[in-house]
Design goal:
34 helices, extended, alpha+beta, 21 strands, six-stranded mixed beta sheet, 49% helix, 760 residues
């Protein structure tokens, strides 16, 4: 038996080593586990990467080739196959050099090229599940990026293993980056990459990613933990060694062969416990764990019996992950005991195979177990990828990106706990803590959940909001006469996946009703904006909007608007945006001129406010351009737009002055009605004030506007390094004369240098 202190991390590589020394270290690692002596592929990849990155350096100042070498060493520590090691060496050559995917495939084969291409695409993605203060467009982009990442993982899971190794080395060298980049990368690591490492069961990477993320996201917390844990380190190690020695003697006496070692829990695990239990470090007793590794499952339970004879177990703190593995297929026996000094500690008991699976997770699949025939292990990773297949199914089912992001964040939740229960046939179900019979029913199948009318727990009827406990035996009561789930279930269900399935039922059952309602909402919105829905919602624009929001057909978009998943203004504005882009193709200069010529009669009054007289098209909607904000008294012209009537501009508007010749054919005459020019209505105007910056300047300008009884719409101020303040303010006036009066008033303010009206 052996004892040592194991922090569960992959050994960090010393910085600023020479590339040749690192390469030799890589080859030594590969030879330790790989049965074949042929390293030609790795050697060729190293030479290509060295040549491609020659002359490039990292932020630390060291040659860039150091990074792919360190990534490959991490992959070798995970005992990956040669193709993955080669791809690790080459993972940046396509992005950072002139080397192409086709050249990689020609030189190294399709397998390596696929891996390099997958990692290159992942590198370009900005990934985070935090949607706080994000616009819908930003959420859509994040969702699209995450969807791409999971699809890349589905093609070949080794892509994400290389990316995890890449992220681990980047986190180890993050100290060379500026603080804001450190924070962004650390948050992304904690949100996405660390949970994925956990889901894939690779604790050796997850442990370090967690700790390094904490180091940069909460440096004060990290330093404080490091200092306090180090204070009694030698005393703690002596205590752990005493327990290990005692355990070792007793399991040997029981005829059980194995290893015993102790380890201090990593900082993020301690921080998580402090945060979840609202405790200080002094109140966290089990800072370390003892691990017993034996040969067989039978020995695991035998060792557990010996341990419970030696030390008093704490009730409720025993977990059997051998009989009921975690979702990532982690297996061990966990028990918390009271030592002779009264201090609690944890013991984990597992077999060697379980230990390897816990440390390397899905990466263990690529270890070459045969002697030298080069054959890989059997496909034993399928169960670990159930969650990935589930995410891919969500991608097919979910059209709402907000919902997808919420579901994904819930599934990757770092702080989630699980509850284990049983079906009537004894099958184990793993659900989020706080789950109800509704969650259980939908975890079996959507059809079971949709037909559920009640549930029994351990043979007794329970309400549907009952919180499932570990070990409960659940039986779902269904009826073919059930009308389906209730909307109240959405507030009772714990799992986001369950809520999604319930929402899907409502969307499907009420689809026709939602389509009709969605179309009505779009038509009503268009009427309120003076638009003709049937004129602008052309099939080509419908198709583009459908693709933009990830739907399969236009009816699905209408249904989404109907049930509130999308806003009607969101859809119409996108159609108008597409229409404007398509304007030159759809409307020719001749068509516009013809329309104006045909109406070359008495000018018509247009627009709901009856303030503008335009020449050209009868009864057309009129709107005022926001680029120059014309007011009564300004010299104006009209511009015929596609689908939105005529926009009114000032003739000195920069957009009119710089208009291309072909667009000028769409300019038409327009003038104010005589009574409008005298004022009466309210019109937006924007001015820029240039002044020497001083205290109270903003208050003086605001006071001047208030004294003139002016409604301020917005006010933005910026100051240059030279002390020049630029104040852009928008407000409402009734005429050009009133605007001139306001400008004259502001010019009298001390420090004001000049005022100009915005012209686009």
């Amino acid at each position: 038996m052996a004892q040592n202190f194991d922090d569960g991390k992959i050994e960090a590589i010393e910085e600023f080593q020479s590339p040749d020394k690192l390469y030799n270290g890589l080859i030594q690692r590969v030879r330790k586990y790989h049965p074949s002596d042929d390293i030609t592929l790795i050697e060729k990849a190293y030479n290509q990467a060295y040549e491609a990155h020659e002359g490039q350096t990292r932020k630390s100042g060291e040659p860039y080739i150091i990074h792919p070498l360190c990534v490959s060493i991490i992959l070798a520590d995970l005992e990956m196959d040669k193709e993955t090691i080669a791809a690790g060496l080459l993972h940046d050559v396509v992005e950072d050099t002139i080397c192409t995917k086709e050249e990689i495939e020609k030189w190294f084969g399709a397998d390596v090229a696929l891996l390099v291409d997958g990692v290159t695409k992942l590198t370009a993605l900005q990934l985070t599940t935090d949607n706080t203060n994000k616009t819908q467009e930003q959420i859509d982009m994040q969702a699209a990026n995450l969807r791409k990442m999971f699809l890349a993982m589905a093609k070949d899971i080794r892509v994400i293993l290389i990316k995890l190794a890449d992220r681990l080395h980047n986190m180890r060298t993050l100290g060379h980056m500026p603080p804001e980049k450190q924070q962004r990368i650390a948050q992304e690591t904690l949100d996405i990459y660390s949970p994925i490492a956990g889901r894939l069961g690779i604790s050796r990477i997850k442990v370090e990613l967690d700790d390094l993320s904490l180091k940069y996201l909460k440096p004060d917390v990290y330093r404080d933990l490091a200092e306090k844990v180090a204070v009694r380190k030698s005393e703690r190690e002596r205590y752990v060694e005493e327990i290990c020695e005692n355990v070792r003697k007793n399991i040997e006496a029981a005829g059980i062969k194995g290893e015993v070692n102790g380890r201090v829990k990593h900082f993020f695990s301690i921080y998580k416990k402090m945060r979840n239990q609202n405790k200080t470090l002094d109140q966290i007793y089990d800072l370390f764990a003892i691990r017993i590794i034996v040969s067989t499952v039978k020995d695991c339970y035998a060792a557990l019996g010996v341990i419970h004879e030696l030390y008093k177990p704490i009730p409720g703190r025993f977990k059997d992950y051998i009989a009921m593995p975690k979702p990532n297929m982690y297996q061990s026996l966990h028990t918390t005991l009271i030592g002779q000094t009264g201090q609690p500690f944890e013991i984990q008991i597992r077999t060697y195979d379980m230990h390897r699976a816990a440390e390397y997770g899905i990466a263990a699949h690529w270890k070459y177990k045969e002697a030298s025939d080069g054959k890989k292990a059997e496909n034993g990773e399928e169960e670990k990828l159930i969650w990935l297949r589930q995410i891919l199914e969500w991608q097919q089912d979910l059209s709402d990106n907000q919902e997808f992001m919420s579901l994904l964040k819930s599934d990757l939740n770092l702080f989630s706990e699980d509850v284990y229960c049983f079906t009537p046939t004894g099958e184990v179900k793993n659900l989020p803590a706080g789950s109800t019979p509704i969650d259980f029913a939908y975890s079996i199948h959507s059809a079971v959940g949709n037909k559920m009318i009640g549930a029994k727990v351990n043979g007794k009827l329970v309400p549907i909001d009952y919180k499932i406990q570990n070990g409960d035996r659940i039986e779902v009561v269904t009826s073919q006469n059930s009308k389906g789930p209730s909307r109240d279930w959405l507030s009772i269900a714990r799992s986001t996946s369950t809520k999604n399935k319930i929402n899907q039922w409502f969307r499907h059952e009420l689809k026709e009703e939602n389509i009709t309602k969605g179309k009505e909402l779009l038509i009503e919105y268009c009427k309120s904006k003076g638009l003709d829905y049937f004129a602008i919602a052309k099939p080509e624009f419908q198709n583009l909007v459908t693709k933009k929001y990830g739907f399969r057909e236009w009816d699905a978009v209408l249904a989404a608007v109907g049930h509130g998943g999308l806003k009607e203004g969101q859809i119409i504005n996108k159609i108008l945006e597409l229409s404007d882009k398509d304007h030159k193709r759809n409307i020719t200069d001749e068509e516009v001129l013809a329309a104006v010529a045909e109406s070359n009669v008495t000018p018509q009054v247009s627009g709901s406010d009856n303030a503008i007289i335009v020449k050209g098209v009868h009864d057309v909607a009129v709107r005022f351009s926001k680029c120059c904000n014309p007011v009564p008294g300004d010299d104006i012209c009209g511009f015929v737009t596609r689908g939105r009537g005529v926009s009114i501009h000032r003739r000195d508007c920069i957009n009119v002055i710089k208009m291309q010749e072909e667009d000028r054919t769409r300019l038409i005459e327009a003038r104010w009605q005589s009574d409008s020019a005298q004022g009466g209505g309210k019109y937006a105007a924007t001015i820029k004030i240039f002044a020497n910056n001083r205290s109270g300047l903003l208050a003086d300008v605001s006071r001047a506007l208030t004294e003139k009884d002016i409604d301020i719409i917005s006010m933005n101020t910026r100051t240059s390094k030279q002390g020049l303040a630029t104040m852009e303010t928008s407000f409402q006036v009734s005429s050009r004369d009133q605007l001139r009066d306001i400008v004259d008033k502001i010019r009298q303010i001390d420090s004001v240098i000049d005022i100009e009206r915005t012209t686009g």
